Amino acid sequence: MSTSTDKATPAAPASSLVDGMDGIERFLDSELAGQIDFLIARARGRGSGQANQMLADLDLKVRQSSVLALAASGLNPSQREMGEFLALDPSQIVALVDNLEDRGAVQRETDPRDRRSKIIVATEAGHELHQKARQILAESEDVTLATLSPRERKQLRALLLKIAF
């Protein structure tokens, strides 16, 4: 009597052996692999995952780094503006700013344009942290986009800006 543990593992389909594709490559011709939303989400996941891994030494993640970048930009964004630009819910922005504020990287100041609102500005330590994060993010982008030429990277950036805004 044979049990399921006695059965041999089925051989790979002949088509994947002929094409030399195994693993996830065999799905590249699927309908899903042609869907823009899927491709954007997958590219974002790969890029963010790579960046988060590289930012770990600074105890940062991409979202925190994004908030810090806006705070260090000199544009004096309010929390509301940050949320709108980063497409994050206000509670997410509050948590990210709280975390960075606890680390001494940002501070909340009264917005001179609207005294009921707070702007988020980087401290001196925040500017230093931002510079380190910027360098790491540039390296991460190079890793993520290694298969693209400089021209293709420029084109991708332009297309993504068109889609995002």
Keywords:
165 residues; mainly alpha; disordered N terminus
Provide an overview of this structure.
The protein has a two-stranded antiparallel ribbon with strand order 1-2. Residues 1-18 have low confidence and may be disordered. The N and C termini lie far apart (64 Å). Helix content is 56%, strand content 9%. The protein has 7 helices and 2 strands. Helix 3 crosses helix 5 (90-102) and helix 3 (62-71) packs across helix 6. It has one domain (31-164): Arc Repressor Mutant, subunit A, CATH 1.10.10.10. It is mainly alpha-helical and 165 residues long.
Q: What is shown here, in short?
A:
This protein is mainly α. It has helices at 14-19, 36-55, 62-71, 79-86, 90-102, 124-144, 150-164, and strands spanning 106-111, 114-122.
State the domain count: 1
> Got a strand count?
2
CATH architecture heading = Orthogonal Bundle
What global shape is seen? elongated
Sheet with most strands: 2 strands, antiparallel
Class computed from helices, strands and strand pairing: mainly alpha
Summed up, the helix count is: 7
Contiguous uncertain segments of 5+ residues:
1-18
